[in-house]
Amino acid sequence: MKKLNVCLGTIAMTLATAGFASHAMADDFLAAARKKVEVATMSKSAWDGPTTGPKASSGKTIVFVAADLKNGGILGVSKGVEEAAAVIGWNVRILDGQGSVSARTAVLNQALALKPDGMVVGGFDTTEQKVAFQNASKAGVPLVGWHSGEKPGPNATAGLFANVTTTADDVSEVAALYAVADSGGKAGVVVFTDSQYAIAIYKARAMEAVIKKCAGCTVLSFEDSPIAESSTRMPQLTTSLLQRFGDKWTHSLAINDLYFDFMGSSLATAGKKGDAAPKAISAGDGSEAAYQRIRSKRYQAGTVPEPLHMQGWQIVDELNRAFNKASWSGYIPKVHLVTAENVGKDGGPKNLFDPDNGYRNAYKKIWAK
């Protein structure tokens, strides 16, 4: 009996030690999440991009082909391209793929028929439009993408001189960690994505992986819903998710703010307050509507926005490098998290993330050399 008691005591001590270790690991993960969130919310006031490059090529005509101009991110980047092109002295034409595969294929072919000096593809999946991209390459038309693939930089396989984007892993991690930190390590999460886009699935799975590392958090559902159909799908989907999960649903993570444009009415009907659960966080873009929701604390708590206008300037700079047979700039903007606490900074009054880091003057100096 004495021997049995000793064994039972040893087992109990082992289980207690294991529980303590597990609790300590959970505390460490939560502390790390809070630290990364704190860093991500800091103001971006210093220019960390290129300072050298080829001087401006004159008289160029470029076409910006948008996957869907209803997407606030794509629209914002197109505005940045127009602004930078006016400074460098180029002509720009904007074409809209209107959110469907057939329309995107059509406008890409239309763009090629215009025989531009260069093309920009905003929000395109490189696999979906492989033939059109190959045709651009065969025609000798430099192609620069925005959110056209999982990674920034050149993509020879897809025919991209460069893909302009932040690092998807970093964006996804910060968005998910904000849910972890905000919930005290007890988030119940629904993830929204669109499997039509490789980058969307990549980011959504990355967010899901972060939540699964949090011992006290749960991924309640992984929802694949076409982003172009958000206006018709999201109200009913929101109601359905509330019925399924109730108060277990504390946070929503989406690959784009557009999903949250059409959730508010269903949440309000269900009696949910604008600043209460489920709290919405987007891993991408930072639309004007998202800024307004965050500012007014109405059904969105945060977004990890792209510096859209700045990236428009970068796209023009990358095309200028392509025209001059130079290498891509190598610039990858750092991630930034916008919440109600810092929404007024870094371009916040204009309802977009526009860092006050002097990027316009930096690019003007490069092109004038």
Helix/strand layout:
Layout: H1 2-40, E1 61-66, H2 72-88, E2 91-96, H3 101-113, E3 118-122, H4 130-138, E4 143-146, E5 153-155, E6 160-164, H5 168-182, E7 188-193, H6 198-213, E8 218-224, H7 230-245, E9 251-254, H8 264-269, E10 279-282, H9 288-296, E11 302-303, H10 308-323, E12 338-339, H11 359-368
Short description:
This protein has 369 residues and is α/β, with parallel strands linked by helices. The protein is built from eleven helices and twelve strands.
Can you give a write-up of this model?
With 369 residues, this protein is of the alpha/beta class. Helix content is 45%, strand content 15%. The chain contains 11 helices and 12 strands. The strands form 2 sheets. The chain has a 6-stranded mixed β-sheet with strand order 2-1-3-4-6-5, sandwiched between helices. A hairpin with a 4-residue loop joins strand 5 and strand 6. The protein starts with a helix and ends with a helix. The model has no long low-confidence stretch (mean pLDDT 91).
